[in-house]
Write a structure and sequence with these properties.
- It comes from Evtepia gabavorous.
- The longest helix is centred in the C-terminal third of the chain and has 13 residues, at 106-118.
- The protein has helices spanning 3-9, 14-17, 106-118, 125-133; strands spanning 24-25, 32-33, 52-53, 69-77, 83-89, 95-99.
- It has a domain at 3-104.
- Strand 1 (24-25) and strand 2 form a beta hairpin.
- The strands form 2 sheets. The protein has a 4-stranded antiparallel beta sheet with strand order 3-4-5-6, covered by helices on one side.
- It is built from 4 helices and 6 strands.
Length: 147
């Protein structure tokens, strides 16, 4: 049973109170996705490519009519040091946050986390100039300058 039919079959709010044990194929990487073994009762993204579908307006309600692909665009750390993936819908632009599951691809998670550092909004040489202006060691080399 696909997600659209399931949304019609179960009453509103069903997934907020019931574990989701469904298997589905990822629309981005075509891998078969199984229920999460750890990290929650609901599998809401592919553990391989971390993509999701825009099916919820509120977590678990399956009330969104958009159905667009949600791309992973960032990660953040919640309270108690729990990681979450930030998704943005390709169709409508809605942002959402989904808890990281125990079987999520660690290399994909780290590449998303490090992307802002690899693509800063300014030239890296500017850091050296600003640090020099503040009286610190502005060298980008290993070890910096010695006094």
């Amino acid at each position: 049973m696909n997600r659209e039919n399931k949304r019609k079959t179960f009453e509103k709010g069903y997934y907020k109170t019931h574990r989701c044990n469904d298997t589905f194929s990822c629309r981005v990487c075509d891998r078969l996705v199984f229920p999460t073994p750890t990290g929650g009762d609901h599998r809401n993204h592919c553990p391989n490519c971390l993509s999701s579908l825009h099916v919820d307006q509120e977590p678990g309600d399956r009330a969104a009519d958009c159905g667009g692909i949600m791309d992973p665009i960032g990660v953040w750390v919640r309270k108690k040091e729990e990681w979450a993936v930030i998704h943005r819908c390709r169709r409508c632009g809605k942002l959402s946050s989904n808890r990281v599951a125990g079987d999520d691809n660690p290399m994909k998670l780290m590449s998303i986390a490090l992307k802002p550092l690899s693509l800063p909004p300014f030239p890296l040489e500017r850091i050296e100039q600003l640090t020099d202006a503040m009286g610190g060691s502005g060298s980008l080399g290993i070890g910096g300058r010695t006094p």
